[in-house]
């Protein structure tokens, strides 16, 4: 039994917060005006042509404000239409050009005269109503007694009943005079649908709408549509983006009743639901129930991705708009906080799914992008790290320029911006003169330049080498002295060498190479085989990362974000990414290679291999794969020629027959001699054999069918 999610029973026309409407009986349009005014509605429509502006010959009546009210025009008790009542507020505009004309006007309205004349100010007011695809104009005549005519003062209003309109339509209303003495007034209004009005029993087009209830089913969300078994209706889930058009996500024609389950990870604030009967000219009703859901906002930030584009461009991809700001920051090699470059660089409001440009002349791996809201920092990416390599030990110098070309330089450090020629006890202050000379001699890279200042990235490697040169020389001399002393006692030397060898091995184990295993989860037995391989490689030693051991992180971050973080860490540490080919993996690769421009089909929430192809394939296509990647497949599960040719630019090994060569590539320069390597290969082969036997299937018995999407949860 589903638990009510947020007391939301959307019967699509019986919302708890509704608007009661006044009823207007009869099909005839009418007009009425404020006390003291007289008005008349001309019969028939008039042409909706405002005409050109003309000068007022004196005081004239003009509309100053439009006000609307929704009413029901009823032909019978249960046969009503939505109607828009319009009130036009009027005022006197302009002055008498000749004082004598004003005096004559006042005398004509003087009640003390023996024969007073009914002097008044008259105007023709046009109301133009447009609701796609129709337009309708009416002409109202209004007269104001001379006693109420005061230039610049309001005289009252005239009310028109009423313009009929469709539920949920957008209407536009204009008002102006004939002739036109000023710019016309206009008003645009979005009319409510059956949900926002108490009209379920009065407007016949609302009778056939399905009832919808949103409730919780554990962590997931359940949509229950309570309609008759014969009724057919359309259901659409879409992302209602503020910045751009509506983006459809899922659509289906169904027959009621239906229950649809949405995964809680699919919820985002702009996810909306639209439902309508499959009948001609039926009313479509939309709701967006997740705007204030905390889970939806968390999912939105998890789904957001920063992407680096050519020519200093970048883009924040997200399904919904994000009220956030972006700033550039400098990430030092020591792993401290990323230091914002504001000022001198400004903050920028983020527009999702739109290409933005960095205000920099050149890229640098230490320059990162921070996206934050008023509450906290939401995400940070060093977008140039993949193309320009790992972080560098560079010092960022900020140049500030004054009005008389008197500039100053300071170094950006965690404690602040340290002037180069200061007596502070920081690294930048100690090397201030040398850094200043590097800037003047062109050894620093200029990242940004303007009239206000500039940013320079100065390498610090040479200063580190100079400082450690004497230390290394002293160590070498000390090592030579110790070696001579040890030669005097040969027997103790042997024991010492034995201990030294063990320490070196222990140190190598602690500095073991990193390896990231990527595979396609074809079935449970293949996942067990991958787990057996990962466990065996950890004994070599190797530091192995595989999604089997990181299910919680995958669910929290998403498969693509988890792979991106693991790949960057592995490559920065000099590790290798292992592509484990299987029938399912080969099928996914061919699918991407055949149509790289279309979106890939959906996969499971923990399928890191499918999510990683968007990052892996560019490395192979652009020639960056050698040295970073290695391929492998199992003898009994895949023929040698099944691996796509694109991936043969890196070594591809058959397991377990080529285990020694495979292990040698994985361990890199620290790999042991061939005899020791063969022993380790034999150990790994014995560990793999039980899992490999259980994984073997006859041809045609393998399957990779998996499904996702709202349709997987539809049941009657």
Question: Could you explain the architecture of this structure?
Answer:
With 716 residues, the chain is α+β, with helices and mostly antiparallel strands. The protein is 25% helix and 33% strand. A hairpin with a 3-residue loop joins strand 30 and strand 31. Helix 10 crosses helix 12 and helix 13 crosses helix 14. The protein starts with a strand and ends in a 21-residue tail after the last helix.
Blueprint of the fold:
Blueprint: E1 3-10, E2 22-25, E3 30-33, E4 38-41, E5 60-76, E6 79-93, H1 99-108, E7 120-131, E8 134-145, E9 154-164, E10 170-177, E11 185-190, E12 211-217, E13 220-226, E14 232-239, E15 247-255, E16 258-262, E17 271-277, E18 285-287, H2 294-303, E19 305-309, E20 313-317, E21 325-330, E22 339-340, E23 348-349, E24 356-357, E25 367-372, E26 377-381, H3 385-388, E27 394-400, E28 408-413, E29 416-419, H4 427-430, H5 432-440, E30 445-449, E31 453-459, H6 461-487, H7 490-510, E32 514-519, H8 524-537, E33 543-545, H9 551-557, H10 559-572, E34 576-581, H11 583-594, H12 608-621, E35 629-634, E36 652-655, H13 659-667, H14 674-695
Parallel strand pairs: 2-5, 32-33, 32-34, 34-35, 35-36
Antiparallel strand pairs: 1-12, 3-9, 4-8, 5-6, 6-9, 7-8, 7-10, 10-11, 12-13, 13-16, 14-15, 14-17, 17-18, 19-20, 20-24, 21-22, 21-23, 21-25, 25-26, 27-28, 27-31, 28-29, 30-31
Main traits of this protein?
716 residues, alpha+beta, five-stranded mixed sheet, five-stranded antiparallel sheet, 14 helices, 36 strands, 33% strand, flat
What's this, in brief?
The protein has 716 residues and is an alpha+beta fold.
